[in-house]
Amino acid sequence: MAVRLALLPLILLMIHIVCDEDDDDEWRVKYTPIHICALKSSTVIMRCTYTYPKKHKVMTAFWTRHPPKQGQEYPDLSVDPEYIQRLQYLGDKQQNCTVRLSHVTKKDEHVYYFRFTTNVTKGMWIGTPGVHLSVTDLQLESPERVTEGDSVRLTCKSSCKLTDTPTFIWYRNSQTLTVRSNELLLQSVRREDAGRYRCAVHGHTLTSPEVYLIVTYPPNSVSVSISGSAVIMSGDSVTLSCSSDSNPPAQISWFKGNKSLNSGGIFSISKISSDDSGEYKCKARNDHGVKYSDPVTLNVQYPPKSVSVSISGSVVIMEGDSVSLSCSSDSNPPAEISWFKGNTSLNSGRIFSISKISSDDSGEYKCKARNEHGEKYSDPVTLDVQLPKHKDSSMYAAFRIGATCAVLLLLCILLFISTRKKAGVSNNRQNQVRRLNYNSTSMDHATL
């Protein structure tokens, strides 16, 4: 190419010498413009006018691109296999020498010349300096990564300045933007601005290669989800998942209350127990910030256990005291409590009270705790109601008085019986004496 261009002045000089019989001012080719920058795959129109002496008649008019070797004729591009389907001469054989070249590629970057010949022997001309054609594609300049809130500028560039003042078109993903210049300015960039960007020129199919804009930002929308049944039973397997909208992806750590647990997006409990009940939350952290999720509560349900009865009041229960029995139970949901004395059903409720206990209330008491998952009885407790001490003394005194009276009465009876017996013996003796005296008197009288 360089050698051919170097030979061009010599060739043109030879042409001018051949044509020195005419005024050089009458031979002229004018190109507008002489430099064209076109987009790849576009259509280029190289505008051209020419003049020649009036006595000449144009016989051939065509475009060429390479100065031939010495002794060779200039090639006509309209019959060149590389151009025959793409090059169309729009001019005539009088003044207009405009040509159109379609679907240009980088291989079409050359200097193009208009060449014509006339009916006069050796009447020919090639226009200089020709049209310099440059073919460009579009490139998009953009930072790869920006932080939310920053400003970013994207520039649509070509390797040469396009000849026609272009109107640019911008695309984000499949959406067309309203910007028409070769620069796209995003002020206070948002995470929604992330995506694939490309640019194009209005009226052309060529677009730039896509550039992906990454927008980084701190964690947002951090939340915890629970997999499994809505009702968590003791012994179930439970999995907690933490989701976070962040870029770059956040590191996840877990907490129960304020206690730190494992790290990772998933937290699993294979066999959950009542001890695992409580509030759980996750923390999402990246280079731009930290955010916690709202807590979620694991409410582990189970049947009653650890059912027991406690007695309020004195250790020694005296008749007339007030006694309260309390039933405690570990269960979820809370259990319903019912009371029994032996096998006799009593009241319901956590507290069973007796305001004035009597000896009839003595016996074994127990409670039953029941919820939707099961029931359990407490061990029985015994109420041993004792009589007050002052009541024992009065009864003992009464017993003593009664016993004394009974003894005295018995003695009186025995004394009475004894007296009667003695009186009877005395009377018998007196009667016997009287009878003896009477008999003696009677004998005395008889003797007399």
Summarize the structure.
With 448 residues, the protein is an alpha+beta fold.
Labels describing this entry:
448 residues, alpha+beta, Immunoglobulin-like, 7-stranded mixed β-sheet, single chain, disordered N terminus
List the topology elements.
Layout: H1 2-18, E1 28-32, E2 35-39, E3 44-51, E4 58-64, E5 87-89, E6 99-101, E7 111-118, E8 124-126, E9 131-136, E10 138-141, E11 145-147, E12 152-158, E13 168-172, E14 175-176, E15 183-186, E16 195-201, E17 211-227, E18 232-233, E19 238-247, E20 251-256, E21 259-263, E22 266-269, E23 278-286, E24 289-292, E25 296-298, E26 300-312, E27 317-318, E28 323-332, E29 336-341, E30 344-348, E31 351-354, E32 363-371, E33 374-377, E34 381-383, E35 385-386, H2 389-447
Parallel strand pairs: 2-9, 11-17, 18-26, 27-35
Antiparallel strand pairs: 1-3, 3-6, 4-7, 5-6, 7-8, 7-9, 10-12, 12-15, 13-14, 13-16, 16-17, 17-19, 19-22, 20-21, 20-23, 23-24, 23-25, 26-28, 28-31, 29-30, 29-32, 32-33, 32-34
Give an account of the 3D structure.
The structure is a single chain. With 448 residues, this protein is an alpha+beta fold. Helix content is 17%, strand content 44%. It folds into four domains: 134 residues, Immunoglobulin-like; 73 residues, Immunoglobulins (Immunoglobulin-like); 80 residues, Sandwich (Immunoglobulin-like), CATH 2.60.40; 84 residues, Immunoglobulin-like. It starts with a helix and ends with a helix. The N terminus and C terminus are likely disordered.
